[in-house]
Write a structure and sequence with these properties.
Immunoglobulin-like, six-stranded antiparallel β-sheet, 35% helix
Length: 285
């Protein structure tokens, strides 16, 4: 039997024909054939696909959260309206919009997936990097009538005025901090009186806000940037003490005392740097 197979195989090689007692030996599924006619193992196809996914998935997940410009349409005039926006990974939103009366407004919005509503009794407080906080409650003191005109509260967020009348080519002082800062901090209260805080990056806010207002982006001087990055002990301490004072109105009765005790313990620690002082204050939060 072996001799007969060998004789058939020799005749096959000499004639170049593929017919024989085992014709399926030379057959191949079209999906497994390469462009050169060579066979491709199914395992190699799976491995190649897995390697491709391992490269693409991290690249897609590592996209940087940054500000951008959204083009909207005015529902009445149908004219294009520009907004500078950002959506953080946790779902917080912050928008800037120029209104028809040439005023500049901002909007802070809670994540949509959170089953909470923002407080209608107390407005948020925000600050940028180590600068002094801006308490939006002060807008209520500027109101004249019963209906608010300087802020609007929705179910998930709040709109508030930044500047009353924009002038061409001029950046309002409150807006400069947004354009040159690194991080926007917003402390807000829910409808149930819970105090929460959001951190919103300001990456590319300079370019987005400038594009929205048709201005050139602001230049950041190296010495100013270095001074902003290094906060003083006084600034860190003032922000934490303000936080402790807020605990008098929310939380349990012991929260304020525990907050002050932590401040005293961290302040008396030897060889304290600004970074270690901040870390000590934030420990356990």
């Amino acid at each position: 039997m072996t001799g007969a197979f060998d004789a058939w195989y020799v005749r096959k090689l000499s004639s170049g024909r593929t017919e024989g007692p085992h014709p399926r030996m030379d057959r191949q599924h079209p999906c497994l054939a390469s462009s050169t006619g060579r066979r491709t193992r199914p395992g190699l196809v799976v491995v190649a696909a897995m390697l491709l996914l391992s490269v693409l998935v991290p690249a897609a997940g590592a996209q940087t959260i940054q500000w951008y410009v959204e083009v909207l349409t005015d529902p009445i005039t149908k004219a294009p309206v520009l907004e500078a926006r950002i959506l953080t990974r946790k779902g917080y939103r912050f928008h800037f919009q120029k209104r028809e009366d040439n005023s500049l407004w901002a909007e802070f919005r809670m994540p949509r997936h959170v089953e909470k509503s923002i407080s209608r009794k107390r407005l948020p407080t925000y600050w940028i990097d180590g600068r002094d906080p801006v308490n939006l409650e002060s807008l209520k003191e500027l109101e004249v009538g019963f209906k608010p005109t300087l802020y609007e509260i929705t179910d998930k967020g709040v709109h508030f005025i930044i500047w009353g009348a924009l002038k061409k080519g001029i950046v309002p002082p409150p807006l400069r901090d947004f354009m040159l800062g690194d991080t926007l901090h917003v402390r807000y209260w829910t409808e149930l009186g819970e105090m929460e805080q959001a951190e919103i990056p300001l990456k590319r806010a300079n370019e987005a806000i400038a594009q929205m207002l048709n201005l050139a982006p602001l230049n950041r001087a190296p010495e100013v940037a270095e001074q902003r990055r290094s906060e003083t002990f006084e600034t860190v301490a003032r922000h934490f003490l303000d936080f402790c004072d807020e605990l008098r109105f929310v939380g349990s009765d012991n929260d304020f005392d525990l907050c002050r005790d932590r401040f005293v313990a961290c302040s008396e620690a030897p060889n304290q740097s600004e970074e270690s002082f901040r870390s000590c204050l934030n420990e356990g939060e």
